[in-house]
Write a structure and sequence with these properties.
Elements (H helix, E strand, L loop, with lengths): L8 H4 L16 E7 L4 E8 L3 E7 L5 E7 L2 E6 L8 E4 L4 E3 L4 E6 L4 E8 L5 E10 L6
Antiparallel strand pairs: 1-2, 2-9, 3-10, 4-7, 4-9, 5-6, 5-8
Length: 139
């Protein structure tokens, strides 16, 4: 019988990548993997915002959001009306349709999601009529 091993960056390196920020990385966006032949990218997105005034959409790209750490709210609106938004607790992975307005907010001091999207992403931005603000919860 073989032992069960814990996944670490080092132990899993021969087989692939751990979906996380490297220990020394202090940025907010880290591309974990991509494929130049069939262009896409997989990245981690880290944030601590509890309020937003601007949302974005990618008219030509779907985008996945997969919770990794902390508690995330996902604000989304159909492309026709960015002011008609809904707020969801991101407690399971989702894929947004191309052109959906979106933004993340953290309910914990910091949160991280995994994002998969086209390698080259065009973005549109919209300013909201008012600030969307959420309270933080203890982690």
């Amino acid at each position: 019988m073989r032992p069960i091993e814990r996944i670490t960056e080092e132990s899993f390196a021969p087989y692939g990548s751990v979906i996380a920020f490297p220990a020394e990385d202090q940025t907010n966006f880290y591309v974990v993997a991509n494929d130049q032949t069939h262009p896409w990218r997989l990245a981690c997105f880290r944030y601590s915002n509890h309020s937003i005034r601007k949302i974005e959409c990618h008219p030509t790209s779907q985008e996945s959001f997969e919770p990794l750490e902390g508690t995330t709210l996902l604000l989304v609106a159909e492309h026709t009306d960015p002011e008609d938004w809904k707020l969801f607790l991101l407690d399971r992975p989702v894929v947004l349709k191309a052109g959906v307005w979106h933004q993340t907010l953290s309910l914990t001091p910091e949160a991280t999601v995994k994002i998969t999207e086209n390698l080259d992403v065009y973005s549109d931005y919209a300013n909201l009529a008012g600030e969307v603000q959420v309270g933080a919860i203890e982690s």
